[in-house]
Write a structure and sequence with these properties.
Length: 197
């Protein structure tokens, strides 16, 4: 098993696929263990690395994961087989905005196009259990969301602005309360205010 994971880490490094950083993934796996999370929705499968790691926490966990890029989706399918977790993971090849789910999840992991985080959050919060959690990755965007916008390419500046809008959206949200963790590339943990009372 370790072998399959190491191969995926190496493939991601060589092909510039932004899989979750080690301390970020460890936080996520600990959270899943501690809170006995069973039903997970992931937006952004890439090659299946985080989905497989989450599924391996416990055989009673199920992960639905969405990816719009066919090559990455196919890579994920093959990795999921290699890791023997086919029965625990349901991969969907679609743009997340075209996916309609009625299932309810304990944890929703947003790790896809950084410019769309508010839209992902608003769309999929309806699939979150009352006491569930929405985890967002890459809120630091390699430290850029904390710094000045000078000297960035137009494209990167646009993404940083969008991520900062998302951070403000979470801070001002009256329905959800968010903890911002300086782990990995910056992780947001959002819970319904009503579940905290
Ligand atoms: N969660 C993965 C990494 C995901 S990288 C891991 O840690 O192992 C982000 C992925 O999101 C990319 O592969 C990209 O193709 C996908 N993505 C971006 N926007 C998307 C969208 N709107 N719908 C589905 N997938 C999307
Ligand atoms: Mg990420």
């Amino acid at each position: 098993m370790v072998r399959v994971l190491e191969e995926m880490e190496e493939y991601a490094r060589e092909n510039h696929i932004p899989i979750m950083q080690q301390d970020g993934i460890e936080f996520l796996l600990d959270y899943i263990k501690k809170h006995q999370v069973k039903r997970i929705l992931e937006i952004g499968t890439a090659i299946g690395y985080s989905a497989i790691r989450m599924a391996l926490v416990d055989s009673s966990i199920h992960v639905v994961t969405i990816e719009r890029d066919e090559t990455r989706y196919n890579g994920a399918l093959s990795n999921i087989k290699k890791a023997h977790v086919e029965h625990q993971i349901t991969p969907i090849l679609k743009d997340a905005f075209d996916v309609e789910l009625t299932d309810i999840f304990d944890l929703i992991f947003i790790d896809a196009a950084k410019a769309q985080y508010i839209k992902f959050f608003e769309k999929f919060k309806h699939n979150l259990a009352n006491n569930g959690v929405i985890v967002s990755d890459n809120l630091n965007f390699h430290g850029l969301t904390h710094g000045s916008l000078e000297n960035l390419s137009r494209n990167v500046r646009g993404l940083v602005k969008k991520l900062n809008l998302y951070i403000d959206f979470l801070k001002q949200n009256e329905e959800f309360c968010t903890e911002f963790l300086e782990i990995g590339d910056g992780i947001g943990v959002s819970k319904r205010v009503s579940s905290l009372e």
